[in-house]
Each structure stands twice: as C-alpha cells, then as structure tokens.
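User: Here's a structure from my thesis project, written as structure tokens. My advisor, Dr. K., wants to see whether a designed sequence matches the one we expressed. Can you design one independently, without my sequence as a hint?
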C-alpha cells in the first residue's frame, strides 16, 4: 500500500468547455490523459482532507475511470469519496448528494448527450461545493494546471469493488458506496405533490418516458412507476447501457424519434418525456404536440406556483442567451428579475446561490431550479406532471392558453456540424467585424434593427465572460443568434438560433414562420457559401 508518484507530460487541449472536459473515449484512455486532468483538479482544489462525490452515467470506460479516480483521491489525501453503486450517478443526483451531504464538491463522468463507446465520447466535469459546475475562474485554473503538470499521485493498490452499499477503506480514505437514486428521490418528494400526481395516474392518465438506455432509467422507474403509480412499462429503454444501445442519447425530436412517432400517432398517451445520457436534459411532448425547451421553461415558470416547492412564487428567472424570449415575457408579467446568461449551466450558479432566480433553463433542453445547481431532466418531468395534475388540461391546451396570454415565440435551431475550425472561426470573426454596419440593412425581406456581440458580466460575482455569441435583432420582431459549440469533440459546430414573436398567428408551422429569419441569417453570415452546406446537418 503505497502512494506512487508517476512522472507525466502536459497534454495540450485539456480545456474544460461549455460543460467540463470532453474528448473521444480513445483519447481519454491514452496513458496519463485522465490522470493528468484529475491531478490538475486536485492541485487546484487541494484534495487533502476533502470529501468528494463521484459517479457517472455508466458509459463505456466509466468503471475504469472511477477506479483510477478513487486511487488518485486516496493518494492525494482525500478523506472520503461518496460513489454511486456500480459507479452510477446521474448529473442531477451528483448535485443532490453534494448538497445533501455538504461535501466539498464532486466529479461527474459523462459526455452528456454525446454517444458512448470505445469509438464515441467520454467526459469529466468538476463540480464545486454548491453542487454546480465549477465557474470559469476554477476551470481556467484547472486548464492552467494541465499545462504545467509534471507528475500525478496514485495508490499502487487496486480500487475496492463498488457494487455493494456500504463503506470500505482505501489506504486512509473512506470509499462510501451509496444507492444512486435515494437522495435524489427524497429531494423530489419535498418539491412535488406526489398525492396529486398519483391521483392523476389513478384517473387513467398515461405517459411514456424514454430513458434512451441512459442513466435516468432507474430513477424514472423508481419515481414514476413505483412511487407515483404510472403503469408498469411507462418507462421504456430503462436499462443503462455502456453504449446507450448504439443510440445518440439526446432527447430531441430527431434522436428520440420513436417517442415522437408514438406521441404524434393515433394511440398517443397523454404525456411523453425523455432524458439524455447523464439525466440532466429533458424533452416534453404532449399528445400530438412537441413542446420546445424554450416554451417549456416559460410554461413551467408561469405555473410553478402550483407545485408545493414553488408555492411562494419565483424570485426570478434566468435563461441562456440563445434561448427564446418566451421566459423573459413571463418574468416581466410576474414582475420578477429576468437574466440572460451565456450558454452553459455554470453561469446560473451564482444567480441561484444568491436567490436572484428560482427557475432557469436553456434552449438545449435543460431546465432546473434552486433545488440543485445542475439542470435536471426528471425534475422538469415531475413539475410538468404536478402542473397537469393541478390544471387537468392537456399539454396542448396548456400551450394554447400560454400563447394566448403571452404571445408565441416560434423557435428553431440549425446546427452545422463537423466544420473545419478555421472556416467556422473566420465566419464568426468576419460577422463580428461587420456588426456595427448591420443596423438598417435588409436581408431575406427583414431589416436589421440591432446587432451585437454578447459579453456578459455576472451581476452577483462581477465575473466577465466575453464573446458568448452574436445577436441580430430584426425590426419585424424576429431574432437570430450565432455561436460556436463548446462541447464538440471533432471540428467545429456552428449553431444558428432562429426565433420570431407572434401575437396573432399562434398555430402555424415553425419552419414556415422562421424561413425568412433563416434566409436573413444566411445572407448576413454567408453560412451556406462559406461552409458549402446547402442545409444544416441538424434541425431541432
Ligand atoms: C450545448 C448546449 C448548451 C448546454 C451544453 C451542455 O453546448 O448548447 O446549452 O449547456 O451543451 O449540456 P454547446 O455545444 O452549444 O456549447
Ligand atoms: Zn446531459
């Protein structure tokens, strides 16, 4: 039983992106790659005497990574590591355990909605003691440490088995294996009216939850079927698999097309939902209608007071900048604070900690609240169920009612994937340079009213995040946003976000309403000409 100090060399590019460090699994399995990053985290936080939570979404390499991190935690003097049985913890569950147990932070192993497997993706993220992703000043320090690293510390002995609940020692450190679901499920019970939701299911309400062979399966089975009485079989693809059954565990109409087909078909249940690889994203579908994540955030915000955990109302609402302005309309109507933040959950943490906002969300299917410091897929599903149980309207009726009150923000996202980085960066740089000249110009039949680069100052901490995307507002009430993805693992992905506000035309096809906005954005940015792509690779 000895601490080994292994010499290592810095590996370029270990820079946490929108949500931690992501790379191909093969890259993560290269000698030293995971170890260098973990040692850099431990150097920055000083792991000595610390209690950490550790778990992942069960994708390929999860177990090996957990074993390495346990041995490194012990060698770096950590007092205790709380690990999910079998190495499993959803991202929101890690946040819940960090907060419930008051630990110093945690490590999450996941590449979220990216596919898993030896040929696919892996990732690691460090969360701080509030349960949320490390803010930029911490991720920046970790990145600097990865550039300077020359050695890492690891125990020579094997890590203990983690398949039985209980406590085992590893050198001087305690390895505490917990049930992955328990703490999280207990938290949900404090927020929602389980009796009301049980009564809803007892009245014949039917739902389908597609866990996409990802981490949420056991959580959804326990909460929806066992605790709330949804008919057995309501949760499908509930067994987590190392490769997510070969699927892309991204809950959107494209990747969750089976659920979409069911929900738009003749025998659709009342409510459909799905979650992603690590359980922090959600997709909501009613019978015959898809709810965009931006609308879902706005609807949840407008109705949250119907659930016990939010009965006192909201202190404010936050949304990431490319998210539609639907949530901002609700904040204005409720007379509460509204905050537009850069993309990525780490920017919500300070606002939630200061209780400046109660609910927050992103267009990319993330919604959450003060209950945690991560977005939370199943939480969003339960809040929807609580609202449906109280209002006893269909999802479609709730949406129609919302739009009649607030107007409708039609919304779509166009992604251009796997672009050459130089092409994508040049497109952004050229458009940035032209921003001051755009107001007054017409494109695609629309007139630019304003154009800027989004630079953000955190109103709580004063931290500044520059160049978080380009915003173009049109005189006709539409808006387009452009930014480069910070989660990709190969080449560059350009995201073009399109929205249009309507108060009269409430029941139209989004693609039709947004086609002039798409044309205008293409004309202004030169996307198709520069990329050679006539259409986006992905439309959500
Ligand atoms: C994407 C989403 C963003 C989300 C992130 C992590 O990041 O756009 O909203 O926070 O995944 O789930 P991007 O690839 O756009 O940087
Ligand atoms: Zn995720």
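Assistant: Designed independently from the structure alone:
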């Amino acid at each position: 039983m000895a601490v080994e100090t292994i010499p290592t060399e810095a590996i370029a590019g270990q820079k946490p992106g929108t949500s931690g460090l992501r790379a191909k699994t093969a890259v993560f399995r290269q000698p030293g790659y995971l170890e260098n990053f973990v040692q850099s985290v431990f150097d920055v936080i000083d792991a000595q005497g610390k209690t950490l939570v550790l778990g992942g979404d069960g994708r390929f390499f999860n177990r090996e990574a957990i074993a390495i991190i346990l041995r490194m935690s012990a060698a770096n003097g950590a007092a205790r590591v709380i690990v999910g049985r079998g190495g499993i913890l959803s991202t929101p569950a890690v946040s819940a355990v960090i907060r419930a147990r008051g630990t110093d932070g945690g490590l999450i192993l996941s590449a979220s909605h990216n596919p898993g497997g030896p040929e696919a993706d892996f990732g690691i993220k460090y969360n701080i003691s509030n349960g949320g992703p490390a803010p930029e000043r911490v991720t920046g320090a970790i990145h600097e440490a990865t550039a300077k690293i020359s050695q890492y510390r690891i125990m020579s002995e094997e890590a203990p088995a983690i398949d039985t609940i209980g406590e085992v020692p590893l050198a001087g450190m305690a390895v505490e294996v917990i049930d992955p679901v328990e703490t999280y499920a207990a938290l949900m019970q404090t927020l929602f009216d389980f009796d009301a939701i049980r009564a809803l299911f007892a009245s014949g309400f039917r739902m389908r939850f597609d866990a996409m062979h990802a981490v949420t399966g056991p959580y959804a089975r326990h909460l929806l079927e066992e605790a709330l009485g949804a008919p057995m079989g309501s949760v499908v693809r509930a067994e987590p698999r190392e490769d997510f059954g070969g699927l892309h565990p991204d809950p959107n109409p494209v990747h969750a097309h089976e659920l979409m087909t069911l929900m738009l078909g003749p025998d659709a249940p009342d409510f459909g939902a799905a979650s992603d690889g690590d359980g922090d994203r959600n997709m909501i579908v009613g019978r015959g209608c898809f709810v965009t994540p931006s609308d879902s955030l706005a609807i949840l915000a407008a109705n949250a007071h119907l659930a016990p955990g939010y009965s006192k109302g909201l202190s404010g609402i936050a949304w990431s900048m490319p998210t539609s302005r639907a949530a901002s309309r609700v904040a204005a109507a409720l007379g509460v604070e509204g905050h537009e933040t850069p993309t990525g959950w780490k920017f919500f943490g300070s606002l939630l900690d200061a209780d400046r906002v109660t609910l927050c969300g992103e267009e990319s299917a993330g919604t959450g609240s003060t209950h945690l410091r991560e977005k939370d897929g199943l939480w969003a599903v339960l809040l929807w169920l609580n609202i449906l149980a109280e209002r006893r309207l269909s999802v479609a009726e709730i949406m129609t009612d919302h739009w009649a009150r607030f107007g409708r923000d039609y919304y779509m996202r166009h992604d251009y994937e796997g672009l050459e980085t130089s092409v994508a960066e040049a497109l952004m740089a050229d458009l940035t340079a032209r921003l001051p000249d755009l107001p007054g110009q017409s494109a695609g039949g629309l007139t630019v009213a304003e154009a800027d680069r989004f630079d953000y100052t955190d109103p709580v901490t004063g931290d500044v995040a520059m160049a978080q995307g380009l915003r173009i507002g049109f005189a006709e009430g539409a808006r387009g946003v452009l930014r480069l993805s910070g989660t990709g693992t190969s080449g560059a992905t350009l995201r073009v976000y399109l929205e249009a506000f309507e108060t009269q035309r409430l029941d139209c096809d989004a693609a039709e309403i947004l086609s002039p906005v798409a044309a205008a954005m293409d004309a202004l940015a030169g996307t198709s000409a520069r990329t050679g792509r006539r259409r986006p690779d992905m439309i959500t």
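When you compare it with your expressed construct, this may help: Residues 510-525 form the longest helix (16 residues).
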